[in-house]
Amino acid sequence: MSKVKVFKEIPGGAMRLAFIFLLFSSFQVLNAQSNDTTSFDLLPQKLSLIEKPLWGKQGFFRIIGLAPLTPEAREKELKLRRTMLSLHQLGGFITLGLTATSVYYGQQVFNGKYEFFNAHRSFVRATVVSYYLTASLALFSPPPLVRHDKETSSITIHKALAWIHFAGMISTPILGLSIKESSDPIKTKQIHQISGYITLASLAAGMLVVTFFR
Q1: Which among 73, 68, 121, 75 has a CA at the least distance from the CA of 98?
Q2: Chain-centre distance of CA 69, in angstroms?
Q3: What is the pTM of this model?
Q4: Taking the CB of residue 164, how many other CB atoms lie within 10 A of it?
Q5: What per-residue confidence (pLDDT) applies to 212?
Q6: In whole angstroms, how large is the CA radius of gyration of the chain?
Q7: 108, 116 in Cβ contact below 8 A?
């Protein structure tokens, strides 16, 4: 039986139904692709390790419905991001002031003025709380619309310095607590002192570069 003969034996109604089905399927595929592209464009190509599980396409806030991935919701997210980053900058200045005061009282204790020990300890506690609250405002903020990772800017320098003062904010209090139990208290106290000054310097540089060199 020839192909032409088989084709002629297919009823006209069945052919029309098949054509409509193919047309409908094609429309659905194109529509799905269009929706995927829209969702993709609403987020930057690269998300940080914290942004992806929270704000990514399948992130926590998307899944629970708190932040649907729509243009309207993303506009609100960008406003929230600006607010959080402004508070982050304000918190940075507060933390810098607390850190400088902690270092000042720490230096007094280091010089033998032990009456400043309680003041030093209180400001260290306030500094640590302020630091991590301030850092969380930047870390947990929604992602931007576009991210230019390859460009060197004040923000990239600010982030690079953050690694230094973040390490200092962990190590300096631990060193301070371990002075009494250390086998060499004088050496531990000196390392604690140096760590405190490096933390203060890197924090001040981070605030300076992001405030005056945009």
Answers
A1: 121
A2: 18
A3: 0.75
A4: 16
A5: 85
A6: 29
A7: yes
Rounded Cα distance between 129 and 57, Å, is 32
Residues in the chain: 214
Q: Work out the angle between the directed axes of helices 117-139 and 71-110 (0-180°, nearest 10).
A: 160
Written as one letter, the residue type at 112 is G
Summarised one tens digit per residue, pLDDT across range 141-200 is: 999 998 876 667 888 899 999 999 999 999 999 999 999 889 999 999 999 999 999 999
Cα dihedral 25, 30, 34, 37, rounded to 10, equals: 110
Q: Express each pLDDT in 39-70 by its tens digit.
A: 458 899 889 999 999 999 999 999 999 999 99
95 pLDDT higher than 90: yes
- The identity of residue 14, as a single letter, is A
Say whether 149 sits in a helix, a strand or coil.
Answer: coil
Number of Cα atoms under 13 Å in the Cβ half of residue 181: 5
Taking a C-beta distance cutoff of 8 angstroms, is the pair 122, 109 a contact?
no
Handedness of CA 146, 147, 152, 156 (dihedral sign): positive
How many C-beta atoms surround the C-beta of residue 16 within 10 A? 10
> Could you give the C-alpha distances from 100 to 105, 127, 137, in angstroms and in order?
9, 9, 21
Q: Tell me the C-alpha distance between 7 and 12, whole Å.
A: 10
Q: How far apart are CA 11 and CA 39, in angstroms?
A: 43
